Amino acid sequence: GIHLVDVGTSGGVWGLERGYCLMIGGPDVAVQHLDSIFATLAPGADAGSNPPGDAGTAPFGYLHCGPSGAGHFVKMVHNGIEYGVMAAYAEGMNILKSANAGKRQRTADAETSP
Predict the structure, then answer these.
(1) What residues act catalytically?
(2) CA-to-CA distance for 30 and 44, rounded, in angstroms?
(3) CA distance 26 to 82
(4) For residue 96, what are the contacts with CB-CB under 8 A and spacing of at least 6?
(5) pLDDT tens readout for residues 69-90
């Protein structure tokens, strides 16, 4: 039969140097059959930082996330979190700019000196 396997990737344009992740969705039998391909395409354990005790394929840069569609679903969640963090940074920077933070001359005294 035919199996649908999807693979979302993350790592951006620097993924090759810093490491990237393959997020795989599909039936167990199909993903196991293609494991050697994923292992070849993945960046390997030396590409990123891996917590001690990690088991499975995640430390090597690829992970079977669930049934067909799960790989891209996990990528979508990852992107949503990443874009939310970027928006929070932008909002914080705008608040600092609008508050003229760091541009006012301050009086140095015993309370404010390091």
Answers:
(1) 75, 82
(2) 21
(3) 25
(4) 102
(5) 999 999 999 999 999 999 999 9
